[in-house]
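Q: Convert this sequence to structure tokens.
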Amino acid sequence: MDNFLMLAPVFVFFIALLGMGFYVQKTSADAKAKNFSKEYFIGGRSLGGFVLAMTLVATYSSVSSFLSGPGVAWQKGFGWVYYASTQVVAAFIVLGVLGKKMAVIGRKTDSVTVVDVIRKRYGSELLANFSAVVIIVFFTTTMLGQFIGGAQIFSAATGLSYEMGLLFFAIVVVLYTTVGGFNAVAITDTACAVVMVIGMVCLGYAIISKGGGIANIMSVINETSAAAVETGEGFNMISPYAESAGVDTIPMPLYITQWMLCGVTTLGLPQSNVRCLSYKNTQSVHKAMIYGTIVVGAMMVGMHMLGVLSRGVLLSIPEGASTDTVVPSLVTGYMHPLLAGLTIIGPLAATMSTISSLLIAGSSAIVKDIYIHRKEARNEEINQKFVGKISLLCTAFMGTVSVIMAITPPDIIVWINMFAFGGLQTAFFWTLVFGFFWKKANATGALIGSVGGLAFYCVTMAIGFKISTFHNILIGIGTGLILFVIGTYIGKPSEEKVLRMFFPEKY
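A:
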């Protein structure tokens, strides 16, 4: 009976998502017949402010926001909440800095993807193709982490094996994304964002209730921290640096690079940037900046704070277990089954919304940026029905590959996400920022900066090389900047007609 009560809300939510996908597919059939890629990949540039904000929030809020992050906060304390708070500015920065520029250029050039915009700005096929490959590789890596997290949550809630949870979870999210396209993703993302907030509130109520109130919970945290300082075992959960045995486990350099990784350099995330091509008017983007910032702040700070407070309820985890198990343990062990079912939808929704957005953007990199572009370059006729078929196949294929890779999961998901985030930002940050705001930027600089920065980032991550305790995003972004500037001054300037389009105020 308990399992039924827990599973009922989850299955209802899954069925609702599938219904939304098929409904959108049916209602947008005529528009897709006229221009499949524009309708399937950016929803015909029709998003309003609230939906734009929620789909951006849902895309940015991943399984690590609901699973790994709160788990680490349970272990290290309030320092991890401060660390996570850097993400609050993400929606405001992306929409505020690139929102209008990308929307205007997207309409002028009829661009459907971020790679479309890069191709129009720099006129380089090599750069555009490299960008498309980077998107495919790192989106697949990011989806791997999301599938692992979703399957772990579903397995913990249902008692099914990890493999069965992975299969069921994957079928639902890949199916509704493949069938419905961007509009379905936008609508389901909105539903997911709302459910995330509801799940967070339910979890918060359970933690405070079971912990005997905030005062009692804080007493436990203070005692735990005092014992850690005295014995050198565990973490000082009160300190922003989360000291353990006299060592800062969240040192200041890591804070600084976190502001880059999850703050300023989120301008380089293609899955977020493509939202700037999808809204309908200026009023929409202004509203989305406000709504998005409020909701991201509530979820990022709120969920990690709940992770800390849960220490007053869940005193320990099994030896050898990952901190990823903290939230599932809280939900299944300390909540009424029906409330647990409602709560578990939150992290599942975060996972599904991120996967669906990555699937659509990854599919567009294959279909729009490679296949359709080659057709257009050769002046060949584009069959919209065939485009529709290969788009569906590519979306399904990318999802399947990620699922296969997720069968044998690594220990902690948050590090997978951070690696992929850093790679995407290194490859795209300067290319987009300089492309929109520096007239001298050219194809040589963008290509050398993107390739060189990404190479340094990946190699230093692989060999474990660091500068002090800074995250390697500093190496990737720093190297990319130097190489971009050098390449710009040795390369040929961009064509004047391109500069007139991107910088009309200077001509």
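The chain has a mean pLDDT of 81.
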